[in-house]
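Extended Data, record GPI inositol-deacylase PGAP1-like alpha/beta domain-containing protein
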Amino acid sequence: MGDPEFQVSGGAGGTGARYEDIGVLAAHSDDLARDLAGASVQGHGVLVDPDLLASAVLNPDGFAKIEAGLLSALDGPDGLSALSLGFGERAIALRTVVASYQAVDEAQARAIDTLRWAAGYGLGGALQTGVLAPGLALPLVAPIGVAGAVFGDDVDWEQLLTEHPGIVDNLVGLGPGLISSLPGTPMVADVPGAADLLGQLYEDGTHQTVERGVDDSHDSMRFPPRDFADLIDGLDWRNREANAGQPDQIDVRVITNPDGSRAYVVDIPGTKEWNHPFQGDSPYLHDTGTNIHVLGGDTTTRQHAIADALRMAGATTDDPVMLVGHSQGGMVAAQAAHDTSTGAFPYNVTHVVTAGSPIGAVDVPPNVQVLSLENGHDLVPHLDARDNPDQANRTTVTFDSQLGSVGANHNTREAYLPAAQALDRSSDPSVQAYRDSAGAFLGGESVESKVYELNRIH
């Protein structure tokens, strides 16, 4: 099987980066306009210099030529004043272009969200009254209806959804409107708001972090990572092989670089406990409740436990930290990166790598570089009904790996590790820029991998 095809958005080669470049060009134009205006003011001062005016008596012709030359250089069509005005106008035009494009992008996103919300609200009303509001929910759920009508009982729903995961975006996007339509429930505007409301059904509790020693049982734990494949291989080992179920365990790979400095890679597995809110409180932090809380933008107990593990591993607030997460693990990683700006995660997170994680709604600080791997046939990245933003610090790599089932398409070993191996051969500028920026984590001399068990206590 050949390498999967990649679609790369965002990052150093993305539209957001080009917008930033235009912004820098506008700032330089402003600076140049000010410098030229200052030089023009000084030049006009020369025109009325007393010594120059006095020379007019002795050499009228020479004085006139000097004055004419200065006036032309200062106020002529190509003079300093005109150039200053031109660069100032260019700065305004550049900023206007960027603002216009960004406004259009934001308006389109809001329009899609509004349509989905209205469809959900209409669907909720239909469920309560028995009358479907025409034209609302139908366009968004039509693919499911058409498939059912055409194939009847023979439709392969798993195949349908994995081939067309955008259906999941629409179904999830219906949720806020649907919830808002129910009697006695508050109005919720978006998916994070709906998740925040549902999160009230799950008690997040407090955390307990227990060190379980050093793991040297796998190459990814014994040798420092060199590339994307090594990073995902380590995540896969912790996520699937070393601890496929309970308890919740992470590892902190403590990397010592040739200059003696240290960097920390934290591997955060995905959900393993699929509990409903009426089962009672789960002792495990990688559960459904954490999914809902982090989707709502909450600082979760699992995040606090990871911070505790970093402290126990010896990380200081200055040491560079990379958070690598699968599914829920990537969601927690992105939220922790966001929380570095609020102080709720007191570590120097410089890099995040996610595999199959819905993090489009998370506002990541511009100083944190994010690489998101998304299988185009994986449903999980669609659970926030939001595309990842195209920003200079956020690179999203989408690849096609249809393995025939929801589970396989989301699997770290079957879907995401081969993609990471192929990505190491990519020459895409955004991918290369991310790789170059991650030198503190990919050029280590040695590594010690410490394992931590994360528990919830009530």
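Summary. The longest helix spans residues 80-129.
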